[in-house]
Design brief:
The complex is a heterodimer of chains A (251) and B (482). Chain A is an alpha/beta fold and 251 residues long. In chain A, 39% of the residues lie in helices and 28% in strands. Chain B has an eight-stranded parallel β-sheet with strand order 3-5-8-10-13-16-18-20, with helices on one face. Chain B has a six-stranded parallel β-barrel with strand order 9-11-14-17-15-12. Classes of the chains: A alpha/beta (251), B alpha/beta (482).
């Protein structure tokens, strides 16, 4: 098992957001997590990535059999966890090249590997750029500075391609994308799929799942995963709406 | 008879008193304190000509009538000027056997800065392997310069070998009496660099104090004078990234630059004097006067500084743009952490027509420090069609530090353009988390972000300095977040 979340309870400022989440992700799988706004989807992603400011009152998260609860965010990343942010932040003055090079080499160092030479690195960059159809002009720009929404999301997938994580959590990767950008992003994610890695796709809309076909669909509702099914579940949800879930849970 | 005897006795005793002091010339240190005799002592030690002694004495008299200024945004503990030794003979550093005997914290910093092992040994006073013949390196270097007619030596040596040049240019950029600390320097300056580039010569290498033959412990009152004659060019580097301790707390240096027609001087500084400990105790006071006069038409002076050290930094490298079409530039990154304080910036005085100046100042405050930018842009009546662009940015790390800006603008003609932009920002937690999520530790992330912020200034530095400066910025801010 790649990722195992057991009975996770999380609060922010005294308010409980996750009320006992259980989730098992194995290698080679694509999982989708859907649910209404405010239900805790992004919180779940942030907790796995190791963001500060949350109170974990109960539960356990293991990655490749190791507990990651006490690991700093950078160590979790070095272990192979990647988060595609919903709102990627801008870092002025730091070029994507410099940023990626630092990131890649820190991860390599963690695994006892030598840093990539400048030549090897640039080669890798142009290779992965093609995957998300990024023009070379983009890479000299500062990280996300002045990027459109679509460019920011493509940049997230580009970074994912560069870092080759074992577990990628994509938080609303499709929000703000037009149909062409959506296709490019989904294409990129699909190309990166292997039998050794896994992807969690967090989304509101069924549309993305036409392109990134999930093995499992989970519905996160009121802080818990209340339903799990195959890809048809997403279609049923789109048809019937969240009221249907509410009734099923309460009734 | 008794009266005569008394007179003779008096003469003898008083003359003993008058000269006894100076015959102690063989001692290593001037007696502690500052009076006219101290000034004479210093001048005699250096075997200076009469006119230079006069220069010092006049300055000393003037200084005695001046008061320490208190308008800066700085809290300066009272300085006892009588509790300072104003002259120390250049002494050989105590030689250590190996790097094992050096303070491990110092070695740690050297390693982080990427300083080679050989260099580390040199910097900490460990005997250098005979394999590296630094003397021959220096000799080859000075031969190259000599062939081009370039004069580059210690200020004290230049006084003896090129007194005419010193006499002509000393005090022209920073006149005696300019300010309290520069006037003190005029009286008691120890040593520094002298550089003269003859007409039409482009100095082929970056000059730095490392290559100055017989670089002595310049101590606390450094004096540097750089002259670029018509059409000449030189790039000069001051300081080093390696942390510098000094038994003397007060540093009041003076740097003067003069450029003739079509000449250019690029002066870069990386300053990392001991900043005091985390509780704000100790640390160097760096009160410096740096000024360049673009005397000739179409000449250019640019100042680039990376200031990360000192407990208190107080300096305004400035340009007087006298020649028409002359250009002045000031690029600065000033970092303050823990309890450090800085009040720094530049003065661009436009006298000639069509003159241009640029000020780019990046302040970074962390810990409980205070960082102030203070600048003056002055367009005089005759400086028609002139232009200034100033940008001062402040970056705050944490919520206990302060960033302050005091811009002064004086426009005395209506055809000149003065632009001023300012930003204040902080490193957001989101930016840090984004970096961490990509496997970059928090300290590395701060380094990355801060270097991105300071990029515009760092790229002005000569390359090796730039690489060291980037590492230095990261190290100065380690542990400042979280």
């Amino acid at each position: 098992m790649l990722l195992n979340i057991k009975d996770l309870h999380v609060s922010i400022n005294g308010k409980e957001i996750l009320k006992g989440v259980n989730l098992e992700i194995n290698k080679g799988e694509v999982h989708a997590i859907m649910g209404p706004n405010g239900t805790g989807k992004s919180t779940l992603a942030a907790i796995v990535a190791g963001k500060d400011g949350y109170d974990i009152s109960q539960g356990e998260i293991t990655f490749n059999g190791k507990s990651i609860m006490d690991m700093a965010p950078e160590v979790r990343a070095q272990e192979g966890i990647f988060l595609g942010f919903q709102y990627p932040v801008e870092i002025p003055g730091v070029s994507i090249t410099n940023f990626m090079r630092t990131s890649l080499n820190e991860i390599r160092k963690y695994h006892g590997q030598e840093p990539l030479s400048a030549g090897e690195f640039l080669k890798k960059m142009s290779e992965k750029q093609k995957l998300v159809e990024i023009t070379s002009k983009l890479k000299n720009r500062s990280v996300n500075e002045g990027f459109s929404g679509g460019e920011k999301k493509k940049n997230e997938i580009f970074q994912m391609a560069m870092l080759e994580p074992q577990l990628a959590i994509l938080d609303e990767t499709d929000s703000g994308l037009d149909i062409d950008a959506l296709r490019i992003v989904a294409n990129g994610v699909n190309k990166l799929k292997t039998n050794d890695n896994a992807t969690i796709v967090i989304t509101h809309y069924q549309r993305l799942l036409d392109y990134i076909v999930p093995d499992y669909v989970h519905i996160l509702f009121d802080g818990k995963i209340v339903m799990t099914g195959g890809k048809e579940l997403a279609l049923e949800l789109e048809e019937k709406g969240y009221e249907w879930i509410k009734e099923k849970v309460n009734g | 008879m008794a009266k005569d005897e008394q007179k003779i006795l008096d003469d003898i005793t008083s003359s003993d008193y008058k000269y006894g002091f100076i015959t102690d010339i063989e001692t290593e240190y001037a007696p502690i304190g500052l009076n006219e005799d101290t000034v004479r002592f210093i001048s005699a030690k250096k075997k200076e000509p009469e006119w230079l002694l006069e220069f010092r004495l006049k300055a000393f008299k003037r200084w005695q009538g001046m008061e320490q200024p208190d308008w800066a945004h700085l809290k300066i503990p009272p300085i006892d000027f009588q509790d300072i030794i104003y002259y120390a003979a250049p002494k050989k550093k105590k030689e250590l056997e190996s790097l094992d005997q050096v303070d491990p914290e110092l070695l740690d910093t050297f390693n982080k800065l990427g300083i080679s092992l050989e260099e580390q040994k040199k910097l900490s006073g460990v005997a250098v392997d005979a394999v590296i013949d630094s003397v021959s390196v220096k000799t080859t270097f000075s031969d190259t310069l000599a062939k081009l007619g370039i004069v580059f030596m210690s200020f004290s040596e230049a006084v003896l070998q090129h007194p005419d040049l010193i006499k002509k240019y000393l005090g022209k950029a920073v006149p005696s009496g300019d300010n309290f600390f520069s006037t003190l320097n005029d009286a008691v300056f120890s040593d520094g660099s002298f550089c003269y580039i003859p007409k039409g010569v482009r100095c082929p290498v970056e000059l730095s104090t490392y290559f100055r033959i017989n670089a002595a412990n310049t101590g606390q009152f450094e004096r540097t004078l750089i002259i670029a004659d018509e059409g000449a060019y030189v790039s000069y580097l001051e300081g080093c990234t390696a942390p510098q301790r000094d038994e003397n707390q007060l540093h009041a240096a003076v740097v003067e630059i003069l450029t003739m027609k079509d000449a250019e001087v690029k002066y870069s500084t990386v300053q990392n004097w001991y900043p005091g400990n985390k509780e704000g105790k100790g640390g160097i006071f760096n009160f410096v006067t740096k000024r360049g006069i673009c005397k000739g038409d179409h000449s250019k002076i640019s100042w680039t500084q990376v200031e990360t050290g000192s407990a208190i930094t107080w300096k305004y490298p400035s340009c007087v743009l006298a020649g028409d079409n002359s250009i002045g530039e000031f690029y600065s990154v000033a970092v303050t952490n823990n309890y450090q304080q800085a009040d720094t910036g530049s003065k661009m005085i436009h006298l000639g027509k069509n003159t241009k100046s640029t000020i780019i100042s990046k302040g970074i405050s962390a810990g409980k420090s205070h960082n102030s930018y203070r600048g003056l842009v002055k367009m005089t009546k005759n400086a028609t069609n002139s232009r200034n662009f100033s940008q001062c940015d402040s970056l705050l790390l944490g919520d206990r530090c302060g960033a302050h800006t005091f811009p002064y603008i004086e426009g005395q003609n209506s055809s000149s353009v003065i632009e001023h932009e300012a930003t204040t920002s902080k490193i957001s937690e989101d930016q840090l988390f984004y970096c961490q999520q990509r496997g970059i530790s928090q300290d590395s992330a701060v380094g990355l972000i801060v270097n991105g912020y300071a990029k515009e200034v760092l790229k002005q530095l000569p390359m090796e300095f730039a690489v060291e400066a980037q590492k230095l910025l990261s190290i100065s801010l380690e542990g400042s977040v979280g």
